Each structure stands twice: as structure tokens, then as C-alpha cells.
Amino acid sequence: MISPACEAIGLEELVKAQAYGLGFDLVGIATLGPVETADAFDEWIQRGYAGEMTYLPRGADKRRDSRLPFPGAVSAIVVGLDYGGREATGPVARYARGDDYHEIMASRLRELHRWLELEIGQPIAGKEYVDTGPILERDLARRAGLGWVGKNTNLVNPRLGSFFFIGSLLVDLELSPDDPFEADRCGTCTRCLDACPTNAFAEPRVLDATKCISYLTIELKGDVPEHLREPIGSHLYGCDICQDVCPYNIKFARELREPAFAARGAIRDKDAETLARDFVAMDDEEFRSAFRNSPMKRAKRRGLARNAAVVLKNIGSS
């Protein structure tokens, strides 16, 4: 039985209010179906820009049609969670300094799912995605009105910038969609493209990941190509440069408000050299203890030690 509030206000508005109440900073609704950017993604893969990320081509059918993750899926509730673009730049990208965003956002989306079932008064099939499946979430987010894809390939919101995570809850419930974000507000600006120290952008909105510092310090398993080591500079894990220079982040980025994303003790207030020396000296047990529930586990201790060696060479440390 649908609640009186739902009948009086409208389910979509209640869904958004509940999402904001759970701590999300953005929320919109999109109708699922054929995905217009799937061909561009396939071409990106074929051009070799994914590098060693061999998992990306998987699930092409779901990537092409967002209704396919489970039978009956018709709507997506798309959310954004800010992670503090006003935090000082440093050797670790802002998104990775605290706890792993995947589970934080997924647990809140599951809570939103449970609330929705109670509000409707019946079971609702649903599945949450937070950067973990073959769903083109930027496409869904744009269609839900949350922003446009900037020239640096990040989704940009006109009132928030781009320092936020995207998540989505797919449901077998028909919801009225928001208007898609149609405008391209980058205009003639090329600050992000010009600032990239490794020239990783093949063209606006096309990133050659094999040259990207985030890829080189996180996804790449082998040695960093010699010609790209010096441009990495003091970046030990990830890179925020193309976001730092974006006018929308300069003007609209927020202070960190989510305690879970605050820098953990192992990296807090440490400069690149100190942190690099820590990584080199750590054994596996020390690494597991220091980075439990951290996104930085993805690079593993060996990867961080490799990054540390590159950084120490770049800054002239013996």
C-alpha cells in the first residue's frame, strides 16, 4: 500500500528527499534503455586506451542496454557523493585518502532500496552499482540531469564541480525521469587538457589511460615506462590535476563533509618524500594494517613501493 505522503507529494520527490537525507549531495532519476555512448566506449577499447584493464570490455550487452542487469529493470536513481575538493592537493588523490567509497555508497543505496520497498508497501527488485559493473554511470548521471561530461572525461555539476562519486540504484519501478543535462558548459576552455603532465588526452573527452598518472600508479602492474616516470612528479597514488584546474572546481568545490573520506593516519599530513619512504619500508602486514578498507589496497604494497621509487627519484632523494 502506497503511503499517504507518497500520494500527496509524489514518489520521485520523496525518493530524492530520502537520498539527500542519507547524505548524498546529488540525486536524479533516469529511465533505463539503450545507451547512446556505448559505441564510443567500444571504440575507446579498440584504440587500446584501456591498457591492462582487461575487465572493462566484459558485460558489453549490459553496457549497451542498462535494462539488462536484471529482468524488469526500468528506472535508475542516480546519486553523487562529494569527497572534498577543497582539501589540499598532495601525493595521494583526494578520493583515496579515507575509506573505500564503494561500500560506503553501496550501503546507503541498499538503505534507500529498503526505504523504497517500505514506502511502496511491496518488494521491489533492485541492484546498486558503484563503479563495480558494466554500467556506464556517467551516461546515466547525465541523463538524470546531474551534469555534463567535461573535456577531462569527468562528470561536472554546475553547482558542485567534479569532486564527487557516482552511484546508481536500478529498480523495476517506473519513475518519472528528470530532464537530461544537454548543455556543454566547458565552452572553449582547455585548462584540463593543457595541464596534464603526461599529455594523456588524445582529444577532448578522450583519455588515453595508458598515459594517465592515475592508471600508471594504480592499474598498471608492471614497470612504469621510462619516458613517463619524470612527468609523474610526486604523485604516489592517483592524480587530481585535471580537476584542480577546472574553473567549476576552483569556484564550486566544497570542503570535506563526509568523515569517512578524511585522510587516514598512515598518510595524513605527510609530504611525498616521507610517504614514499614509508611505502618502501612497509612489509605486507604493515600495509594491510595501515590500509584496511582503503581504496589504496588496489595498487597493493608492491605497486605503492614501485610508485615510491619513481617519486623518490623525481624529487632527488638518495
Q: Can you offer a commentary on this structure?
A:
With 318 residues, the protein is an alpha+beta fold. It has one domain (1-262). Helices cover 37% and strands 11% of the residues. It is built from 14 helices and 8 strands. It has helices at residues 4-9, 11-21, 38-46, 60-64, 101-120, 137-143, 191-195, 213-219, 226-232, 241-244, 247-252, 272-281, 284-290, 300-314; strands spanning 26-31, 75-82, 126-129, 148-149, 155-156, 164-171, 201-203, 206-207. It has a 4-stranded antiparallel beta sheet, sandwiched between helices. The chain has a two-stranded antiparallel ribbon with strand order 4-5. Strand 4 and strand 5 (155-156) form a beta hairpin. Helix 12 crosses helix 14 (300-314). It is globular. The model has no long low-confidence stretch (mean pLDDT 96).
